[in-house]
Description:
By secondary structure, chain A is mostly helical. Helix content of chain A is 80%, strand content 0%. Chain A has one domain (53-265): MetI-like (MetI-like fold, Orthogonal Bundle).
Amino acid sequence: MSVSAAPRRGTLRVPLGLLVPAVLGLAFLALPLAGLLLRAPWSTLPQRLAQPGVLTALRLSLQTATIATALCLLLGVPLAWLLARVEFPGRRVVRALVTVPLVLPPVVGGVALLLVFGRRGIVGRWLAGTFGITLPFSTAGVVLAEAFVAMPFLVIAVEGALRGADTRYEEAAATLGARRWTTFTHVTLPLVAPGITAGAVLCWARALGEFGATITFAGNFPGRTQTMPLAVYLALETDMKAAIVLSLILLTVSVAVLAALRDRWITSP
Amino acid sequence: MTARWTRTAVVALALTALSGCGGGAKANGPAPSHGVTGTVTVFAAASLTESFTRIGKDFQAANPGTKVTFNFAGSSALATQINQGAPADVFASAAPANMKTVTDAGNGDGTPVVFASNQLVIAVPKGNPQGIAGLADLTRPGVKVAVCAVQVPCGAAAKKALAVAGVKLTPATEEQDVKAALAKVKLGEVDAALVYRTDVTAAPSDVDGVQFPESAQAVNDYPIEVLKNAPNKAGAQAFVAYVRSGEGRAVLTAAGFRCP
């Protein structure tokens, strides 16, 4: 059957020139994980997991990463649509701007956020003066820092999906009298749903692991802004085993969520 | 291939000869040590950045043929790096606890000696706009405070000083090291931070320091030690001796440290 024929055709024809670097690449990515697993203090694991700070940090991480992803979806999907579907002057510049957080060291991103949303920042001063809202050192600040770093992943994935999608469906909808908004919600969105999901998953994973921008912009306070990566970093200062345990939890949660999502929604048609 | 190896050997020989010359020439200078050459790698606490950079330059001048390279970071991170086999000659820690981590793992050579001590002050923006005069003022409503996390030496000292003062403080943030806490004051995001006196001395144009009596109960001792696997043991010993000499003490004192 085609199912059994496909892998055989795939495995036998791999040239050594590709196979060797591929295996090396895999080892390079997998070995550090194996190192964590080998050095984990398995015997004291239950006590360490039961420590009060661990669950607090984990809950905060899951909540903030999820809210940040929602924020990215709300703003990122329209942005991706704009980049993919509308010809406007300076589109290349806008696209380059969107990818800036990808290359910016997250700590610098955190400082940049402080300069804008901080107490003395352009927007931050207005927010504080008008609404009494201060974002630094708050949970909302964590969400903001995570969204800043993670949104490019979503925008790039969704823009790619939009460009790959067949525009004839949208044109057909237009000829049938659908307005552009209706076309977007009833034709475009369902068409690129798998791309949006993939982008959202990437975005969520990036937000979950965010460290530099978070500690710089939102600071570190248990229960309010101390997410798992921050807890790992501070545990490293005193107790490497605790840091390994925290990392394993983060690893397990993200692998579980990514695997579950992959199986359900992101399988290619 | 062979030619290249030969050339390398010649260069190596020449370098050996040169360093021999350096050692001979140094006898004329005011060198406090005996024939020290080569690179000395020093792992030092972040709060020593300014003073040790100065001391390193002075040491190189006093010992021609030597080069001092530094790795400045949080003491606990440095202790971890040393215990994981980092090739360091000297370790200078901001707290005895981190030094103990290294000596307990059998990576010290001899006994650590305390060469300096540091005290906490309250760093406030230039001019002290909130009029902060002591630890109790930090709990006033509307005053945002950054402290170090208790896992790092400055955080442990802050916790102790607050306990001595009987002040219950909820900080806006617990920073990962003392320089990060100071940066939050410089950026204007907090109204005060508990940092070392030396950090305030190093940033005179950005912040003012407010002294408080309870800091005397939470003094940080800085121990220094030559490491067991030091690639340049003679250089390491000479550097430690230099830090503890009159010249070294002068630099440390100017930076705001107290020397025993």
